[in-house]
Structures are given as C-alpha cells and as structure tokens.
Design goal:
two-stranded antiparallel sheet, alpha+beta
C-alpha cells in the first residue's frame, strides 16, 4: 500500500504475497467435443444428415460410438433434443442403448453412446444365415422387455427392425440394445403419476420395405 505521509510504498504483511485471483466462470475455457475425443477412423454407419463413427475418450481411452448430426442438413433442432430426452429417460434400461453425453456446437450435434462391438442384429443374422428357436426366443424376450419399458413411459419406437437393434457380442445374438429413436412418439407432457399413455399415432412412419 502507499504511505501518503512519507510518500513511499510499504508492504502490508497481512496480505499474502502469492494470493491467487479466483477464476470466474467466464474465464474457464469450455471443453469442446474434439478437446475430449479423438477419431479412430472406424465408420459405423451413415445417413442423410448424420453419421456414426468410433471415437476414443482421451481421459479414459475408452471407445464410444458417436452420432454426428449436421445442423445444416437436419430437419429440426427440437427433434434432436427429443431423441436426447428419450435416451435420458431410458438411462439404465438393459435392452436400450445408453447415451453417455452429448455436445451441441455451431455446426454439429455430437451424441456419445456406448459402443456395441457385435454390430446390428441384421448383420448378425446374415452371418449365421438363420437363428435357432432358442436364440430367437432370447432376442424376442429382450425386445419385449425394452418395449414394455418404453410403453410404460408413453413412448412408441415406430421403427423397430433388425437394423435398429445392436448386439453387444460378435459371437452371440444377446445381449441386445434397441437404438435409433428418430421416429419415436416422444415424451408425454403430463408428469402425473401413472398418467403415461402412448398417444394415438396417425402419421405413417418407418421403413417402407
């Protein structure tokens, strides 16, 4: 501090010399997707406005399946958030794909999912040429459990097919995870207890073939 009487600078012993300034929230840099993940080069799938590739988390070195949605090509921003909301509601359900986190940036959405090494159920069936009755019953049981959970929350998938079911293992058809909720009915507005009911669905959707 300045001693005005003697016109000299005097050190105040009560003030720590190395005191650090507290960082404000605005001073902390926001982590972007590419700051936390690196691509492995493996492409898992692609569509009209989105692609799915494998990325490695730089912190834990674990691989994830990342759905990259191009904002310029997508039909509706709210539709992406509806899908995110559905995956949030389905957190912890064994037969539904689990979302780890998501990022929204200027040009893309990044939805980070657990990676399913077994690929799609369709590819698994094609490799085997057929399923045994026992294998088919195990797959059906997992799908039924997932649908029962979804319907209890008032959600209809509306595009359930072997391409939208993923296998955890390469050499077995189960466990499976249902994925791709692009055409799902969404989350009911009412939050009252036992009020969840799938709304009447009149719009034709799904895969024509």
């Amino acid at each position: 501090y300045r001693d005005h009487e003697n016109n000299q600078i005097t050190e105040n012993k009560n003030i720590p010399r190395n005191r650090k300034k507290k960082k404000r929230a605005a001073d902390i840099p926001v982590k972007r997707f590419n700051d936390l993940y690196e691509p492995t080069g493996e492409v898992l799938g692609s569509g009209a406005y989105a692609s799915v590739s494998t990325y490695r988390n730089l912190a834990n070195q674990q691989e994830y399946a990342v759905k990259i949605i191009d904002k310029l090509g997508m039909r509706s921003r709210s539709k992406v958030f509806k899908e995110i909301e559905i995956f949030h509601v389905c957190g912890g359900q064994d037969s539904i794909l689990q979302m780890h986190e998501y990022f929204e940036e200027d040009e893309h959405f990044y939805l980070v999912f657990e990676k399913m090494p077994g690929g799609t159920l369709l590819a698994n069936i094609e490799r085997r040429l057929h399923l045994s009755e026992h294998e088919a019953s195990k797959v059906t049981k997992c799908i039924a459990e997932a649908l029962n959970f979804l319907h209890s929350k008032g959600i209809a998938h509306r595009d359930l097919k072997p391409e939208n079911i993923l296998c955890e293992k390469w050499d077995d058809v189960v466990p499976i995870r249902i994925c791709d909720f692009d055409l799902a009915s969404g989350i009911p507005v009412s939050l009252e207890k036992d009020s969840c009911k799938t709304p009447e669905l009149l719009t034709p959707v799904g895969s024509a073939e």
